[in-house]
Amino acid sequence: MAGDPVRPRQRKHRTIGAIGNRGHGKTTLAVAVGKAAAKTYRQDAGAVERIVEAAGRTRAAVAVHSTHSAYATPGCHYTHFDISAGHVGDLLGHTPLDGVVLVVSALGDVTPQAREHLRLARGAGVRGLVVFLNKCDVLQDPEAVDEAERRVRALLREPGPDGDPIPIVRGSALQALAGDAFWEASVVELMKTLDARVRA
Hints:
Blueprint: E1 12-19, H1 26-41, H2 45-58, E2 66-72, E3 76-83, H3 88-94, E4 99-105, H4 112-123, E5 128-134, H5 142-155, E6 168-170, H6 173-177, H7 181-197
Parallel strand pairs: 1-3, 1-4, 4-5, 5-6
Antiparallel strand pairs: 2-3
Helix pairs in contact: 1-2, 1-7
């Protein structure tokens, strides 16, 4: 069921950045979140189509540095920066961020670049950190998904700045974008987690 219409005057504004390896799904996630926000919270579908079109134009090379989109939950309006993997340090060093989504593929080991991106985010003092464990749909065995999450948990040995464990949301950006209701729910869960974790 769709949520209540978003009322702009009641929303706070938050700026977040999506970081992670190339090919792990950052751009797909940005588009999937915009589409899910429109569907769940009754936002302007035309705005989402513009985001989809922009992502389509940059799909091959993403962007030299970053692209950005916008979406809203009932409580927050988000500006979402999708940064190319090689310029995460530039984004964190020059753009004040309220939160970061570290996108990690569930396929294979956690990469050195993901470790470096996490180090940079912590070094920049970003308080709101959430991990989106992407491509979980490819792993047919639930135990394999559990193992993928354990690998990420090993990366997140230290708690967040508030002392709480950093949340990990399991999902599939590609399947959410395709309209699969189960995986759409994972993207909505990510938005709810951001609302709870990201504070100015």
